[in-house]
Design brief:
Strand 16 and strand 17 form a beta hairpin. The chain has seven helices and 17 strands. The chain has about 425 residues and is of the alpha+beta class. The strands form three sheets. Strands 1-10-9-4-3-2-5 form a seven-stranded antiparallel β-sheet. Strands 11-17-16-15-14-13-12 form a seven-stranded antiparallel β-sheet, sandwiched between helices. A three-stranded antiparallel β-sheet has the order 6-7-8, with no helix packed on it. It is globular. The longest helix is centred in the C-terminal third of the chain and has 39 residues. Bound molecules: FE2/S2 (inorganic) cluster (FES) and fe (ii) ion (FE2). The site of fe (ii) ion has 5 residues, from loops.
């Protein structure tokens, strides 16, 4: 166990850019008021399906979900109107396929409800309709009454493969016919420099899903700026961690290609006055930011805390388009935002700890997950209001532009990247 270092609850100077604001260091972002029409337009969402979700690498799971040969899980990706099955083949290769039987198009892998995701272990996939079977490599291995077919090309009727690559144990798929970049190229150095963080050791998971009544980007926005924290989560963010006169300020922002990150720093939670904590947090020494003491993870990777903030709090990496990894020193949080229509999305949250070695550690993890859920609900509770008001603002009130401050730089960057990808798709589609 690492030593608990008591830090005074004082304000620290962050290494801000030498001059000007964070935003002004990225001139392509501009500083003008922003439109959020991309979050209220059904037409824009139809473009996002192909422009973003068919072209970007999408994280669908972790390698720990496929512990043995034949382990599989399915993933519904409504944004591209498909279901995929991800499986570990005999040689350990992780493969992904469209979840469609090649006989008459039945959904191949499902359990009780065709639309519900499922997982398990199998030697082969058997279609529930007429019993065709497929190997773990997707090849068609058995056809019922094969001799009744006409010139059946079995070799050409394997499952349709989906591009699939694994980085640091995160399984990504790409639904484009020919991905423009490898996964590594797509992730870029800001993300790949996280290699070496022991994601693979953090196998005690607490998972949540929520069907939210908002555009997928609006919830991502709520997790990529901390300007809202004193307002929405006021009880947990006392003045001790705010910059005098300025509210709450982040320590470091960085963007790299379509991806972005923010680091927080400041007073350690356990140094805060008791009134800013639930009694259970004090008793269990766990809560909002996880266990106060975490197993030592050794030398952190060079990509962690890139602004070299001390005392460092959280690194919050947003991998375009819809994943967020929040790294605390000894554990991490994963969010995914899966659009289901222009104004609804499915949110997945996952807290990942090293397996508890004692009852106390297990309680620390449970408390962290419960407090996380409360926090996420505070954010999620806003969403229906934001979505419905933004829609009325555009359609009825004639309000189309919104001011965005320096601490909301990542919101600005995110929506610009979305706009750029959609624009590029439009241009290429128009050129065809
Ligand atoms: S649809 Fe799958 S075996 Fe007929
Ligand atoms: Fe929040």
């Amino acid at each position: 166990m690492s030593e608990l270092v008591e830090e005074p609850a004082t304000r620290h100077q962050w290494p801000r850019p030498a001059e000007g604001s964070w935003t002004e260091h990225y001139p392509e972002l501009g500083t003008s008021m922003m439109s959020f029409e991309d979050s209220v337009s059904p037409e824009f969402f139809e473009l996002e399906r192909n422009a973003i979700f068919r072209r970007a690498w999408l994280n669908v799971g972790r390698i720990e979900q496929l512990p043995r040969t034949g382990s599989y899980f399915t993933k519904e990706i409504e944004a591209v109107r498909t279901s995929i099955v991800v499986v570990r083949d005999h040689d350990g290769t992780v493969r992904a396929f469209h979840n469609v039987c090649r006989h008459r198009g039945n959904k191949l892998v499902w359990n009780e409800f065709p639309k519900a995701e499922t997982s398990g272990v199998c030697r082969q996939f058997t279609c529930k309709y007429h019993g065709w079977r497929y190997g773990l490599d997707g090849s068609l291995s058995f056809v019922q009454q094969e001799d009744e077919f006409f010139d059946l090309d079995k070799a050409g009727l394997g499952l349709a493969a989906v591009h699939c690559e694994v980085w640091a144990g995160f399984i990504f798929v790409n639904l484009d016919d020919t991905p423009r970049q490898t996964l590594r190229e797509f992730l870029g150095p800001m993300i790949t420099d996280l290699e070496g963080y022991p994601f693979d050791k953090m196998t005690e998971w607490y998972e949540f899903t929520a069907d939210n009544q908002s555009n997928w980007k609006l919830f991502a926005d709520a997790f990529q700026e901390y300007y809202h924290v004193p307002g929405l989560h006021s009880q947990q963010v006392p003045s001790a961690v705010r910059t005098p006169g300025k509210g709450f300020e982040c320590a470091h922002f960085q963007v790299d290609g379509p991806h972005r990150m923010v680091s927080t720093g400041g007073a350690r939670r356990w140094t805060l006055p008791a009134e800013f904590m639930y009694p259970i947090e004090r008793v269990t020494r766990s809560g909002l930011v996880g266990p106060w003491e975490s197993p030592d993870i050794g030398e952190p990777p060079k990509g962690l805390n890139p602004g070299r903030i001390e005392p460092w709090g959280i690194d919050n990496f947003q991998i375009f388009p819809n994943i967020e990894i929040l790294i605390y020193r000894g554990w991490y949080l994963l969010y995914r935002y899966w659009p289901t229509s222009y104004n609804t999305h499915r949110f997945e949250g996952m807290l990942c700890f090293q397996p508890a070695r004692t009852v106390r550690e297990r309680v620390e993890h449970e408390v962290a997950s419960v407090v996380f859920k409360e926090f996420a609900l505070q954010d999620a509770g806003m969403l229906t209001g934001t979505q419905t008001a933004l829609e009325s603002a555009y359609r009825t009130a004639g309000i189309t532009r919104y001011p965005v401050n320096d601490q909301e730089i990542l919101v600005r960057h995110f929506h610009k990247v979305v706009a750029d990808w959609v624009e590029q798709y439009r241009t290429e589609a128009g050129a065809r």
